[in-house]
Amino acid sequence: MACAGLALFWYVQDDVRGVILAIPAAVLVGAMGLRDVLVPVRLAADESGITVVHGFAGRRHVPWEAIEDVKVDVRRRYGLRSEMLEIDTGDHLHIFSAHDLGTSPTEVAAALRRRGA
Fold this sequence. Notes:
The chain is of the alpha+beta class and 117 residues long. It has helices spanning 2-12, 16-38, 98-101, 105-116; strands at residues 43-45, 49-54, 58-63, 69-77, 80-88, 93-97.
């Protein structure tokens, strides 16, 4: 919304460069918001395996036998700590952030390891 407002403001001010920057930013932020509305659940586990988001809004079911590795990649940069859950299925590497999961990737990895064992 803010990007669209800036685009309108710069359009009224005849600032073409500002409009050229704000319109793609508004489209990108809108597409990310649409993805969150279309596919709110990024990862789900059941008795037969896991279901992961594949592509923009698709889903892919992976049986427990096809999961080769579940690990958490922890990085520290500029005093900040970030965690990413990595699920390796051999032909695909599915990566989820804490934002995608809604909780700590370390907790999710532990739950997946217990469930898949």
